[in-house]
Amino acid sequence: MSVEGTWDLSISTPIGKIKAVVELLHQDGVLTGAARGAGEEVPLSDVALDGDRLTWKQAITKPMRLNLAFAVTVTGDSLTGTAKAGRLAASKVTGQRRTVRAATED
């Protein structure tokens, strides 16, 4: 299963829905990525794919400084799961992979 690509995420937090964009790619045989949202871009760490279960960690500073741990299940071009920040309750995460538009020749 490939999880590479650009994913539009929606995270349901106690302070409201937060939109984020996660980009995943294989680099030298290792799954890596970065997340953008709330005006910052952060690298993903400990990215792992086990069957259809994708996990990663990331640190953010906006809207507050948090270390997040994501655990999602990927089904085709959609994903669902949770984001956990320390002792806070887990937040529901949903996402859709952006479709790659083929370049058209004139």
What do you see in this structure?
The chain is an all-beta fold. The protein has a single domain (5-97), classed as Quinohemoprotein amine dehydrogenase alpha subunit, domain 2 (Lipocalin, Beta Barrel). The protein contains no helices and 9 strands. It has strands at residues 5-13, 16-27, 30-37, 40-43, 45-50, 53-60, 66-75, 78-85, 91-97. It has a 9-stranded antiparallel beta sheet, with no helix packed on it. Strand 5 and strand 6 (53-60) form a beta hairpin. The chain is globular and about 35 Å long.
Give me a quick take on this structure:
With 106 residues, the chain is an all-beta fold. Helices cover 0% and strands 68% of the residues. The mean pLDDT is 91.
Domain tally: 1
Poorly predicted spans: none
CATH class descriptor: Mainly Beta
Q: Numbering strands along the chain, what is their spatial order in the largest sheet?
A: 4-3-2-1-9-8-7-6-5
Overall pLDDT score: 91
Query: Which value, in Å, is the CA radius of gyration?
Result: 14 Å
Distance between the first and last residues' Cα: 33 Å
One letter per element, helices H and strands E, the order comes to EEEEEEEEE
- The outline comes out as globular
Helix content: under 10%
CATH-assigned fold name: Lipocalin
Q: Write the CATH homologous superfamily.
A: Quinohemoprotein amine dehydrogenase alpha subunit, domain 2
What is the name of the CATH architecture?
A: Beta Barrel
Task: Give a count of the beta strands, DSSP E runs of length 2 or more.
Answer: 9
Which structural category fits the helices and strands? mainly beta
Biggest sheet overview: 9 strands, antiparallel
